[in-house]
């Protein structure tokens, strides 16, 4: 049976870059699908912001619930940020099984400490565990996998704190431990260009718009030419949603109107209704409860 997991496996096997915009709810996931992307991702920062909380405060239950709702709303693969896996190997195994049951196509876990600290977002201060501990996390994550097509991505956060060489070393270790792909965070354009060759395993790059440490944001063409297999656009939809909502609310507060053009509002509302497939609901009601009295 063709599932979103087999779809993702085919994308990985196919030449070229996979572009996975990060969404945070079923509506944004549907937009990713509608605009023609072949893969979507649920990011920790995005979900944390959506819930008005810091990513490190997210629980496994919150992530699994969000993943289930999103995966059920789209027909393309969903990649999920599972943080550190929410505990020791036994907890990681449960996390993997719950996310697999939720219908996700890929899960990534990272080598930061658990519980993860909010200070990570202050200045990208990385609190990482020993490489051997992360290797154990990966091995038990792989052991918990029931569907062999579920993709496991290992993330290392060591390049900024410890250095490029350590990130490469860990990428190789994590691939040897069973990870299908590795996500890492090069500090410079030069490091980003070298990493795919030096690591020798399929790599995930994270385009993080608005980061304050100078981490490069590349075009998809540039990343493909470097040899990356997947790029997650981590923050753009959160920034766009926040900025647009804030602008409308500020305008309403100061002028009494949102400033949204009436025709634009009508067109956008119709687009929203198409995205949530409201016509499908109308059709069922017209076939059932919306029959006129006396009409067979």
CATH class of the largest domain: Alpha Beta
| Number of DSSP helical runs | 14
Give the CATH architecture of the largest domain: Alpha-Beta Barrel
- Please tell me what the overall shape is: globular
Strand content: 5-15%
End-to-end separation in angstroms reads 40 Å
Order of helices and strands: HEHEHHEHEHHEHHEHEHEHHH
Number of domains: 2
Low-confidence parts: none
Please name the CATH topology of the largest domain: TIM Barrel
- Determine the CATH superfamily of the largest domain: Phosphoenolpyruvate-binding domains
Spatial ordering of strands, largest sheet: 1-2-3-4-5-6-7-8
- Mean pLDDT across the residues is 95
Q: How many DSSP E strands?
A: 8
Q: Which structural class is indicated by helix and strand composition? A: alpha/beta
**How helical, in percent, are the residues?**
40-55%
Question: What is the C-alpha radius of gyration, as a whole number of Å?
Answer: 21 Å
Task: Describe this protein's structure.
There is one protein chain. The chain is globular and about 70 Å long. Helix content is 51%, strand content 12%. 38% of the residues are buried. It has two domains: 4-242, TIM Barrel (Alpha-Beta Barrel), CATH 3.20.20.60; 261-296, no CATH class. Strands 1-2-3-4-5-6-7-8 form an eight-stranded parallel barrel, surrounded by ten helices. With 296 residues, it is of the alpha/beta class. The protein has helices spanning 4-13, 26-34, 44-50, 60-73, 89-101, 120-123, 131-144, 158-161, 164-176, 189-199, 220-226, 236-255, 262-275, 278-287, and strands at 18-23, 40-42, 78-81, 106-110, 151-155, 181-183, 203-207, 230-233.
